């Protein structure tokens, strides 16, 4: 059994003061370094991965979480349902689509793309291996289904109209989620700025999907991504704060080494925090949902980043 750390009364008060439509969380939860912050004591990674979600959901500021596991291998409806059973009724999940749908190239054992993927942005696999099991298992606890399209091979970047047309077909095949999941939304995250053109925005609008703002060094800063969200307004905010720009576009390993065991803020990114707080406050202030997840690689410790971001939003509320 994994026990939650005793709740901090100040964080409980902060959580109560935040807008009900705002849901903060982190990218996954199996980090032993959060002992004393989220966990009552130090637990092994394996124990947290298997049993930590219920304790995670007791942290005052956590009302969502990123299910990134589904990116590496499709999950069944039963697996999604098992996650849903561990969290409160008002908790919502942000779920990543399998890479078999969002990678242009099939990966080998080292994780490198080697040959074209016939299932890339294909409606059938997207529905069968992702949308249908996630909706059946999570039901009303589904928040956002995120199709994070991996960086494209350079030669493909000149084929954006064709790829956007393919994306449009896939998104149009996904029926409205709201009958089973009233807060459910389909979101598309990209890692190449070449996607950010009017045809991409139109494909999202036509299909009822939204844009997942990616705070990652591969993508422009918030101000340059906002035009897409403005063109889709009114709508929800889905944002994943993935990586501090200090580390560059390929800096995950550098950030991992520098920030582990993820128990303190190492590189506070005040600019991103302030800009994101402004976007969040504007979204929920207009009565729209916001799902915001943060990685340990954003500032060093995702739970502490959530605290600081929550305080920044509260000051604007």
From TrEMBL:
Q: Name one Pfam family in it.
A: DUF72
What InterPro entries does the database record attribute to this sequence?
DUF72, UPF0759_sf
Show the SUPFAM superfamilies listed in the entry. Answer: TM1631-like (SSF117396)
Domain of life of the source: Bacteria
Supply the name of the protein: DUF72 domain-containing protein
In its UniProt entry, the species of origin is given as Thauera sinica
